[in-house]
UniProtKB/TrEMBL annotation:
It comes from Brachybacterium fresconis. InterPro entries: AB_hydrolase_1, AB_hydrolase_fold, AB_hydrolase_sf. The lineage of its organism: Bacteria, Bacillati, Actinomycetota, Actinomycetes, Micrococcales. It holds the Pfam family Abhydrolase_1. Residues 92-221 form the AB hydrolase-1 domain. It comes from the Bacteria. This is Pimeloyl-ACP methyl ester carboxylesterase.
Length: 330
């Protein structure tokens, strides 16, 4: 496995511990939303207000976006931000966050990615954030369709996608159904893509998945995701906890992408795996990616947890820059 010895910096680690990289696992959401309305929704106006207050506080750490788009799709309105970068890439980077948080969970990544090129970042539809779902999402093709339609509505037509956790699955699922807008794809410790979620993690997620259970249980699970580090009470942590507590998702869990499906991808893929991840088996995931991706590169960060994006933002941006530049030079 390639070595990346640069140690994570405590500040960045702290910011992301309770962040959107936490996959509040599909089984938990499924159990918690058995009687849910057909679209994701806030359980209360008060909960929504608490979340948006934390969202805005976390967003304040980001550079000022050059443009804000609310793109209409068949499944709802998708919030997308564009940031002007200084890099030389022809196509911009598209950032897809993890679940149960919102785009501001990527606040540590945006500055280094802006040195690569322009950046577009969105709130996933059917998740906590400023995207608004208004039609049921019932299948993997539906999940690909809303994202494809959202990209159709943006001024740029091709992107180097970067997806974290569920965002990595979402981008890969898009590539399987509609790859016209993808110049390349980088997956950061993606769930249900190169390996199944371990049973032990599924079991530990169940108490955290119900909004009415104690906040401490969600904090405990978030800490477990990040290798046991303590969860700090920062805006990103408050945002994610508020999303887990107050937003009810109403869509099917992501289906495990099979090696056979990975083998059909025509988009070049950079697979970045966290060596200490509890959301997949790192060795199995890396081996699957190496053997199944027809045009892939695999990097393993031995000391990284599922909070990898906040632990190694500059290293990740450098890899994305090298990989995307190589693709554009072909």
């Amino acid at each position: 496995m390639p070595e990346h010895p640069t140690p994570p910096r405590p500040r960045r680690r702290r910011l992301l511990l309770a962040g959107g990289l936490v996959c509040t696992l599909a089984v938990g959401f499924a159990l918690g939303s058995t009687k849910a309305a057909p679209v994701g929704h806030w359980r209360s106006a008060e909960g929504r207000a608490t979340y948006l207050e934390a969202y805005d506080a976390a967003f304040a750490a980001l550079p000022e976006p050059a443009e804000t788009y609310d793109v209409r799709t068949d499944y709802g309105v998708v919030r997308v931000y564009r940031f002007d970068g200084s890099g030389d890439l022809e196509h911009p980077v598209l950032v897809l966050p993890g679940t149960a948080a919102g785009m501001p969970v990527m606040a540590d990544n945006i500055p280094s990615l802006l040195e690569v090129g322009d950046v577009y970042a969105m709130d996933l539809l059917g998740e906590p954030g400023r995207s608004i779902q208004d039609r049921p999402i019932t299948s993997d093709p539906d999940k690909a369709a809303w994202l494809h339609q959202a990209l159709d509505g943006l001024p740029e037509k091709r992107f180097h996608a970067l997806g974290l956790s569920i965002g990595g699955w979402t981008a890969t699922n898009l590539a399987l159904h509609h790859d016209e807008h993808l110049a390349s794809l980088t997956t950061l410790d993606p769930v249900q893509t190169y390996d199944d979620i371990p049973l032990g993690t599924v079991v530990r997620s169940i108490p955290a998945a119900f909004g009415w259970m104690p906040k401490g249980w969600r904090d405990s699970f978030n800490s477990y995701i990040a290798g046991g580090a303590p969860v700090q009470d920062d805006p990103v942590g408050r945002m994610t906890e508020a999303g887990m507590h107050s937003y009810r998702m109403a869509q099917p869990q992501p289906t495990r992408i099979t090696p056979e499906q990975l083998g059909t991808l025509e988009v070049p893929v950079l697979a970045i795996i966290a060596g200490q991840s509890v959301m997949l088996d790192p060795e199995d995931a890396a081996e699957t990616a190496r053997s199944a991706l027809p045009d892939g590169r695999v990097e393993v960060f031995p000391e990284a947890t599922h909070a990898i994006n906040g632990e190694y933002p500059e290293k990740i941006a450098g890899l994305v820059d090298d990989f995307a530049a190589e693709i554009e030079a072909r």
